[in-house]
Amino acid sequence: MIFQIRSSFFDKYVKPSRPVLFRGAAKKIPSFNNFRNDTYLKENYGDWKVDAEKGKKENRKQPAIKMSFGKFLKKYQKKDMYLVSDLHKNSPMIAEAYIPRPLLCDDFLKRIDSCIMWFSSGGTKSVLHTDSFENLNCLFDGSKELIMGHKKHGTILGVEEEGSFSKVDVDSVDMHKYPDLTRVPWHIAKMEAGDCFYIPIKWAHYVKSSSSRNLAVNFWWQHMLDFPNREECKEQIKKEKDFEPFATRRKLEPEENKRSRFISGFDGEVQPITPDRFYDSVFSHMRIKRNETDNIFAQIDQDNDGLIWFKNLYNVNLEVLKPMLDLMDVIEKQEEADEEEGQKRQRDEL
Questions:
Q1: Tens digits of residue pLDDT in 42-93
Q2: Rg of the chain taking only CA atoms, in angstroms
Q3: Kind of pairing, strands 65-68 and 243-245?
């Protein structure tokens, strides 16, 4: 399948949480052959400092090892190593990263969180996990098999939280210990070099790569409940190709990430939203008074009809949402501190 235009991609796949394979799409990326050539990569990016992991079976408790890209390229065919590095952060290889057509709208671009390279000599295995972001993965070399479970089965799989992973041993699944796995209808996707695959947020997936050289690049972006600026996107469509350089199109705005996390609290809500639902959905468990949320609601509800839509939340001036975003930061930091304290107590008890 060739790439869809941006709004179609959102409506057909992102909004209904439906994976889709774009067969052969990545072969049109200008740097496709460069990523398949170790000599080229070493000569041009050998000094780049990368993160590599020992072993090819994912272990999330194992810290990454820092080394030069040149050193990795020299060792990876002989050692059990796996490179997992963000091209978004201080990488010269950002010049070789191209954003696929479905994401070439400002609504997507300013919410792209990271661009990750996954590189090994093959034979890697992930844990069964979910992502905290929407995911579009493009494969440059080798093949991959993905075994996936719909997000509605997250509780059964023990991965209902975004970014969480199962303790299931993917090499030897203990069905006595995890009998509920038989209740899940599994989906299998097979990627070949040149394919791009959309993995919706919260879908559980296990990824196994072929035994040969394997290199993929994926984009993670913040989940959106709606596509807020369709007309502006249509204008952008007229000017762009199937792929555009990420280096010149990056628009990541940290405050927009906060906005997206805040709006995700309304996931499951039916539009339009009333003042009562606005408060109950997100704020009823926070230290914020109803009259404060009513005041914020009124600023978002610019036509004064007592209703707001998701697009209003995405487009309202961030200063209007700032009191809630600041409170959200405080709550998240407290939760992180509480979790760290709990882990410390467990270590002390041992």
A1: 999 999 999 999 988 888 778 889 999 999 999 999 999 999 999 987 899 9
A2: 22
A3: unpaired
Give the pLDDT of residue 76.
Answer: 96
**Order of strands across the sheet that contains 187-192:** 187-192, 143-149, 204-209
Long-range contacts of 15-20 (CB under 8 A, 24+ apart): 15/226, 15/227, 17/150, 17/151, 17/200, 17/201, 17/202, 17/203, 18/200, 19/148, 19/187, 19/189, 19/197, 19/198, 19/199, 19/200, 19/203, 20/197, 20/198
Alpha carbon 27 to chain centroid distance? 22
- Dihedral sign computed on CA atoms, order 293, 297, 299, 300: positive
Cβ-contact 21, 191 below 8 angstroms: yes
Cβ-proximal residues to 123 (8 Å cutoff; 6+ apart), any chain: 56, 209, 210, 211
- pLDDT tens digits for 211-250? 999 999 999 999 999 999 988 888 877 776 788 899 887 7
Distance, in Å, from the CA atom of 109 to the CA atom of 98, rounded to the nearest integer, reads: 12
CA separation for the pair 256, 90 (Å, rounded): 21
What is this structure's pTM?
A: 0.88
Q: How far apart are CA 224 and CA 238, in angstroms?
A: 23
Give the whole-angstrom CA distance, residue 151 versus residue 267: 13
Q: Which two tokens stand for residue 20?
A: 């889709």
CA distance 49 to 35: 17
User: Which helix (H) or strand (E) element contains residue 325?
Assistant: helix 318-349
196, 136 in Cβ contact below 8 A? yes
Instruction: At 128, list the tokens.
Output: 């069964």
